[in-house]
Specification:
Length: 79
């Protein structure tokens, strides 16, 4: 396993406003689903689309913004 770099140069700032195209993780059924925002419906609701099989379950869903978090690509080699 590579050594973990304790100092990260990456910073993420979220102002709570999601927009079209944002990659997010959606908390549903006690797990997080990686998805993309395809439409903003209101201040607290968006429409998302899950990746099609074999990478995902597919389908378009409405989601509350409180159930979303920024989707990051975690990588051990980059700390």
């Amino acid at each position: 396993m590579p050594a973990v770099n304790p100092i990260s140069e990456v910073r993420v700032v979220i102002d709570g406003v999601w927009k079209f195209g944002d990659l997010v993780d959606w908390y549903k059924d006690n797990c997080y689903w990686s998805t993309r925002v395809i439409k903003v419906l209101s201040d607290d609701k968006v429409k998302i689309e899950l990746p099609m099989a074999p990478l995902g379950e597919g389908g378009v869903h409405e989601a509350f913004c409180k159930d979303l978090r920024l989707s990051l690509d975690w990588c051990l080699s980059k700390g």
